[in-house]
Structures are given as structure tokens and as C-alpha cells.
Amino acid sequence: MENITLEKITYKNYIDVIWRLKVSRSQKNFVASNNNSLAEAYVAITNGCVAMPFAICKNNKPIGFLMIGYGMDEEDLEGEDPLFIEMVKKSYCLWRFMIDKRYQNKGYGRKAMQLALDYIRTFPCGKADLCWLSYEPENVVAKKLYESFGFIEQPQWYNGKEGEEIPALLKL
Ligand SMILES: CC(C)(COP(=O)(O)OP(=O)(O)OC[C@H]1O[C@@H](n2cnc3c(N)ncnc32)[C@H](O)[C@@H]1OP(=O)(O)O)[C@@H](O)C(=O)NCCC(=O)NCCS
């Protein structure tokens, strides 16, 4: 039986998360490397912000990575629309999400997403009304997956610039 779980990053799983979990070449533009994400988590955590990185495991073996944030740092949001900043300050965020290329398209991403939302809905950092995330406009797999969980695109916060991601919101 396949048991998909979210596990804290530990000495036991971090080598796999950093070195072995990769997306395909055509997906590299869609998500930061897990190395970078863990470095960002370190910066957030050591500067009074929230980052909750998890290994997505199948029968205890890491097959993916996700990171949840809460009320991101204002400095990091410089130049954004004030309404967007207001929303972000009091919302959860699905900050990073990837399934290793060898394990994609087998339903594990959907299962991990459900587990992440179940966890967010326990409000581990305090009550919030919204969860947000963002994706590259050409990432149709992610867009469809998020839509199926009720995320609604927010085009008013997307300026169409190169490298810009489209934000989407879910009511918790
Ligand atoms: C997005 C991602 C996490 C989805 O994980 P996954 O395990 O492949 O997803 P699942 O197998 O659970 O499938 C989820 C949905 O996407 C669809 N899907 C998955 N891979 C697909 C593919 N290659 N082509 C078309 N549809 C695909 C499935 O049909 C499924 O929909 P369904 O449940 O209605 O059938 C994974 O593709 C990934 O890591 N992509 C690269 C990184 C990335 O884009 N991260 C998101 C950044 S915003």
C-alpha cells in the first residue's frame, strides 16, 4: 500500500531532498531548486518569519518537497500592490511544491496538496482566511491541479512581465 505523508526535514531525509529530488529539464523554470528553497527557509526563520519545509514521502521515502509560509516578510514584497501585501501579511502560502520527475503523474502531487491544505487548516501559525500561491502562466498542470482544489486566479496582481507568476487564492 502507498502511504503518502509530509515529514519534517531531518538529518535522515535532507540529503535526498537536496540531492536526489529533481524536476524535469522543461520544468526547471517552474520551481526553485530544493537547495534554494531550504536556504530561503533558513533566511525566513532566522529573520522572524515563518517557513515550514516538508519532505513529501511515499512509504517514508522522499519523493517531493513542499514549503508552507505564513505572513511573508514585507521587505521581500517591496514594490508589490499594497492590497496584495495586506492579503499576504495575514495569509498562509503554499510557497514551494514539487514532485520528483520519476514520481510525477501518479496522483502523489494531488495527495500531497490535500495533506498540505489539511495541515494549513489546523492553523498552525494562527487563524487566517486565505491561502495563496503563484505559478508560471505556462504551468498548466499546476494551474489545473490548484484550480481543482478551489484556488482562484487573481489577474489584477499579475503584470505579465517576464518571469512573473500569476497569484491564486483559496478561501480556507
Ligand atoms: C505540479 C506537480 C507537483 C504535480 O504533481 P504530480 O504528482 O505529477 O500530480 P498528480 O499525479 O497528482 O496529478 C495532478 C493532476 O495533474 C495532471 N497531470 C500531472 N502530470 C501531468 C502531465 N505531465 N501532463 C498533463 N497532466 C498532468 C493529472 O492529470 C492530475 O489531474 P487529475 O487528478 O484530475 O487526473 C508536478 O508536476 C511537479 O512537480 N511539477 C514541476 C514543479 C512545479 O511545477 N511545481 C509547481 C510550482 S507552482
UniProtKB/TrEMBL annotation:
- List the InterPro entries: Acyl_CoA_acyltransferase (IPR016181), GNAT_dom (IPR000182), MshD_Acetyltransferase (IPR050276)
Which PROSITE patterns does this UniProt record tie to the protein? GNAT
Q: Hey, what's the signal peptide range on this chain?
A: none
N-acetyltransferase domain location, by residue? 9-172
One GO term in the molecular function aspect is: acyltransferase activity, transferring groups other than amino-acyl groups
User: What keywords are annotated for this sequence in UniProt?
Assistant: Transferase
**Tree of life domain:** Bacteria
Q: What is this protein called?
A: Diamine N-acetyltransferase
